[in-house]
Amino acid sequence: MPPVWIMRQAGRYLPEYRRIRARERRFLDLCYSPDLATEISLQPIRRYGLDAAILFADILLLPHALGCKLDFPEGHGPRLSPVRTQGDIDALAPAAAIHNHLAPVYRTIENLRRDLPPATALIGFAGAPWTVATYMIAGRGTPGQEPAHMLIREDQRLFDRLIDHLTDATILYLSEQARAGAEVLKLFDSWAGSLTRSTALFDRYCSRVHRRIFKALRRNFPAVPLIGFPRGAGRRYASYVASTGVDCIALGTDIDATEAARDLQPRACVQGNLDPKFLVSGGAPLIAETRRIVAAFAGGAHVFNLGHGITPDADPDNVRRMIDTIRR
Ligand code: CP3
What we know:
The chain is α/β, with parallel strands linked by helices. 51% of the residues lie in helices and 11% in strands. It has helices at residues 15-24, 27-31, 34-48, 61-65, 86-90, 99-115, 129-138, 146-154, 156-180, 199-220, 237-244, 257-263, 278-281, 283-296, 316-327, and strands at residues 52-54, 70-71, 79-80, 121-127, 184-189, 226-230, 248-251, 269-272, 302-303. The strands form two sheets. The chain has a seven-stranded parallel sheet with strand order 1-4-5-6-7-8-9. A two-stranded antiparallel ribbon has the order 2-3. Helix 6 (99-115) runs parallel beside helix 9 (156-180), helix 8 (146-154) packs across helix 9 and helix 10 packs parallel to helix 11 (237-244). The site of coproporphyrinogen III has 22 residues, from loops.
């Protein structure tokens, strides 16, 4: 029986989350309030008894800590002050200066370690430098991450400086999360898919950057398992696993479970892959798909999860049915 948790398990599909959100109004205030962020992280654990809790926070808190303005206007995606020139990069805070701003996140982790059942794992996380850079450069989410790709074409040295700065800051951020009590660390590269257009791009800005981060974390926290999520890597998941040596590979919906079991599971624990749409529609297809994934990965190390975050229109009862199916 594989352990199970779900991406975005604390979020808008849960009525108890929406109640807190309606009262507090600003998403960022939730992230920076250790008491509220602790309570929200615990909500799906209480409701479902999931095997892991993930810290309630956001990948964009790191650029915020580096001095970018950040807002989540109602009904829109995130908005940041764009970083596009050498002057913009020079204006960012040094990587080592992030901890004051992020102290509430570390407090949340300490609270969670205290309040979680001992057998429930606590997952800390950060966005991978490429994905975070795509938001910083455009100042928002963008189809195909074109503004970031354009900067690579126009001034790759400048782009590399931004990636290096984010890499240093990510290592410090995740290290501090481990020190505060995170037992597993996950790197979210949600937009790795748009790097797969070339082997050179994918290796340089996904695999090599993740490898650098993992190497630094392994040196200081050898007992902390590392999860990499190069979402959309497709046929490049295999080279990612080989070149990063990641402990657990999180899979999007862009790879078949049977192929992943054959090609990836011999080298790493696998996690993920159920399309979150099944949790909206439910019924027999949800049960069949859940069973199919459990069966495909039964021959090796497997953590049950989705291929991407659960959506606000998912039915909380479908989550329960999925979990019951896995545990039966
Ligand atoms: O998984 C969890 O429960 C932990 C918390 C978590 C959040 N965001 C909370 C959140 C995690 C791990 C993230 C990661 C994140 N944030 C990613 C990578 C994973 C992915 O989904 O691809 C990205 C790209 C972001 C950036 C981000 N944050 C966007 C684009 C948005 C707006 C889109 C949306 O869904 O509304 C957010 C907001 C956000 N982050 C919410 C939550 C619960 C919704 C906030 C709200 O309105 O209540």
